[in-house]
Design brief:
The structure holds two protein chains of two kinds.
Chain A (H helix, E strand, L loop, with lengths): L8 H21 L6 H29 L2 E4 L10 E4 L3 H26 L5 H20 L3 H20 L7 H31 L4 H10 L5 H17 L8 H8 L2 H26 L5 H27 L4 H21 L3 H32 L10 H4 L1 H15 L5 H16 L2 H27 L4 E2 L2 E2 L7 H19 L2 H14 L2 H5 L3
Antiparallel strand pairs in A: 1-2, 3-4
Helix pairs in contact in A: 1-2, 1-4, 2-3, 2-4, 3-4, 3-10, 3-13, 3-18, 4-5, 4-10, 5-6, 5-10, 6-8, 6-9, 8-10, 9-10, 9-12, 10-12, 10-13, 11-12, 11-17, 12-13, 12-17, 13-15, 13-16, 13-18, 13-19, 15-17, 15-18, 16-17, 16-18
Chain B lengths: L1 H5 L1 H19 L3 H22 L19 H11 L3 H10 L9 H31 L4 H7 L1 H6 L4
Helix pairs in contact in B: 2-3, 3-6
Classes of the chains: A mainly alpha, B mainly alpha.
Chain lengths: 513, 156
């Protein structure tokens, strides 16, 4: 690992705390930064440091094993420990890299969609949101998770509400998200309370040891688990608890939608994996029964019903939002199999979906930026008026459907294999049906864009009007990344396999699960 | 009957929690929803305070300072007290006559109270903005105003 030697040793030993503290502090500073340009530059530098740091941590974890950082020098289980391991490191890199890529896009997009005097604080809220998401992933303390969950959620409500100058319904969306998000976080904190009652500790590793010693613990631990699953289910838009998501994605500023779609639900899914498989354990009957019954059911329901709903919608952003709910179903399906290959598939899809949906929302935002349209019927002839944007959109759309040589195919194939290994023949059929539904709702958009002529306004055909370069860079980065993963997915698969093996230790597999 | 009295606080918590949730889902007024949300969150505060109570326990303040010669020792006891169950054992070990309540859940819930205040503040701020834009804080009225938008999916 030559790259690893480029990082100074202090950076690697304190990196776990640095990538959370830096954006948090910078977010506070942003409240007094008067100029938008300066705010953007500071945000960019901070996220660049975070991305490089997360990359360094990932390299370090892959070659030297997990890092445990003791906050303030207080040793766990009394102190708070930040843990970077094979499960959290890739998610850290995903969140900070997506934030960095989106920031190019923020430059023109925020100018167009947010009122001038709110732009500097907007970047502040964004940094705090990123810090919260990174903190959620990196922390090894259960109550700390709740604090960071709320840090990221509260700043997200603000970011969604900022869409009001573009679309007044953003206010209602932010309000509904606030109500449901708070209920979700409160359910989560009730679960943590029960876990504390049962184990008398807040450190996740310690909790796991104590629970293991008591063979899953009493009814208190079971109730705690139920509350945690429901709370996180609300945050990650598990099927019947997804009502906040379409509104929030459809009406917030484009930049916020991109960032949320590719990171927020992913961080919540990471927490679900972390709690279900490391704090609790697959050797406990109640965990396995909730996963293989309840989560399996909602995953399949989400995949089918959310895709069906997406077919009948007219607003492109709303279609993509419902498609996100369906994709969360894919990830949960992988988790609900409770096998290494299932979790590997789920983890690959977590990464791939962030890239795919990020790319799609970027393209839709760019189209709104140029023409102010989001309805499917208004997409007429976009392949002629915005060819570069539309081809990036097409690549991501094909990836979402799961065409071979794209990222979506890799994860769907992996998932189908995992489902087949488990012996759920019907599961493969569900994946196929959901992919066909995806083909229908994405195909509708593509058909209008490619086979209809550009509209005529005031007697003139709408002229070619490509998106600015700052928007094309992130869009094409993600589209090309999607193809690269489609052609050679070895590195993603390897990272996911290591994460899955961390979650399901080998002795349990041998034990006959 | 006696059992009900011994778990009286938990009964209150459950009642408050259900009331809060019901108000959040049933109310059509934005402010009333926030009131429901606050009641719901408050029940969780009470829940945490309840689980920190050790029956017969004193407030966790170190009064017998002669036992800790220097500052370091008191830091040690604080650290051990943070370990939950073992705090009881520790205090029993050192001073059998003093039993402390567990302070950690109370400290945790201070954080949650701050979070609750922040959520409520954002919620109220959003309500103010909604009233400025729509001229109403009744959900039915707002839905009616947005009906055409929602039907066509057109941004303003």
């Amino acid at each position: 690992m030559d790259l690893l030697s480029l990082f100074p040793s202090w950076f690697l030993s304190h990196g776990a705390a640095l990538i959370v503290v830096l954006p948090l502090l910078a977010g506070g500073i942003m409240a007094v930064v008067p100029r938008e340009r300066m705010a953007w530059i500071i945000t960019f530098i901070v996220m660049l440091i975070c991305t490089v740091g997360a990359f360094g941590l990932l390299l370090s974890v892959m070659s030297q094993g997990a890092i445990s950082y003791h906050m303030g020098g207080w040793a766990p289980p009394h102190g708070i420990a930040y843990v970077v391991d094979a499960l959290s490191a890739p998610v850290l890199l995903l969140i900070s890299a997506m934030a960095l890529i989106c920031l190019f896009y923020a430059w023109p997009s925020v100018k167009a969609e947010v009122e001038p005097k709110k732009r500097a604080p907007f970047y502040g809220a964004f940094l705090i949101c990123a810090a919260g998401l990174l903190g959620m992933v990196v922390t090894g303390d259960a109550f700390n998770v709740f604090v960071f969950l709320e840090v990221s959620s509260i700043s997200t409500y603000v970011l969604v509400g900022m869409g009001a100058s573009r679309d007044r319904r953003a206010l209602r969306a932010a309000y509904n998200y606030l109500i449901l998000g708070s209920i979700g976080a409160t359910f989560f904190v009730i679960g943590i309370g029960f876990m504390y009652m049962e184990t008398g500790t807040l450190n996740m590793a310690d909790m796991a040891t104590i629970l293991d010693g008591r063979d899953g613990g009493s009814r208190v631990a079971q109730v705690g688990f139920a509350f945690i699953v429901i709370g996180l289910g609300l945050k990650l838009a598990m099927f019947p608890l997804h009502m906040w998501l379409p509104e929030a994605y459809a009406h917030s500023p484009s930049f916020v939608t991109v960032f949320l779609a590719s990171t927020a639900t992913k961080a919540a899914l990471y927490l679900m994996l972390r709690f279900a498989f490391t704090v609790f354990d697959l050797s406990f009957d109640y965990v396995v029964s909730i996963m293989t019954n309840l989560v399996l059911l909602v995953a399949v329901a989400g995949m089918i019903f959310a895709s069906l709903q997406a077919i009948f919608l007219t607003d492109v952003r709303r279609i993509l939002a419902f498609s996100s709910i369906a994709q969360v179903g894919y990830m949960l399906l992988g988790v609900s199999l409770v096998t290494v290959s299932g979790i590997t598939a789920s983890y690959i899809h977590l990464i791939n979906h962030a890239i795919i949906k990020g790319g799609l929302f970027l393209a839709v935002g760019a189209i709104w930026y140029r023409f102010g349209i989001t309805r499917v019927e208004d997409f007429r002839g976009l392949s002629k008026t915005m060819p570069l944007t539309m081809s990036a959109f097409t690549i991501s759309a094909l990836s979402l459907i799961g065409v071979p040589l794209t990222a979506g195919f890799v994860s769907k194939l992996q998932l189908a294999v995992a489902v087949w290994e488990k012996g759920y023949g019907w599961g493969v059929a569900v994946i196929l049906i959901s992919s066909i539904l995806a083909l229908i709702y994405m195909g509708r958009i593509l058909r209008v864009a490619y086979f209809d002529e550009p509209p005529v306004i005031n007697g003139e055909v709408v002229a070619k009007n490509e998106a600015p370069l700052m928007m094309l860079i992130p869009m094409w980065t993600l589209a090309i990344l999607s193809i690269v993963i489609g052609i050679n997915a070895d590195w993603v698969v390897e990272a996911a396999t290591r994460a899955a093996e961390l979650l399901i230790p080998v002795q349990i597999i041998k034990g006959g699960l | 009957m006696l059992e009900l009295f011994s778990t009286f606080n938990y009964a209150v918590i459950i009642i408050l929690m259900m009331l809060g949730l019901y108000v959040v889902f049933a109310a059509r007024n934005l402010i009333k929803k926030l009131v429901g949300l606050s009641v719901f969150q408050t029940s969780v505060f009470l829940f945490y305070i309840s689980i920190g109570k050790v029956s017969g326990g004193q407030p966790p303040i170190l009064v017998d300072s002669h036992k800790t010669e220097d500052g370091h020792a008191s830091v040690e006891s604080v650290q051990v007290a943070a370990a939950g169950d073992s705090a009881v054992q520790h205090s029993l070990h050192h001073a059998p006559e003093v039993l402390y309540s567990n302070p950690l859940p109370h400290v945790l819930i201070l954080t949650a109270i701050v979070v609750g205040v922040a959520t409520l503040a954002i919620g109220l701020a959003l309500t103010v903005r909604i009233r400025e834009v729509y001229g109403s804080i009744e959900e039915d009225e707002i839905d009616r105003i947005d009906y055409q938008y929602n039907l066509e999916g057109v941004a303003k």
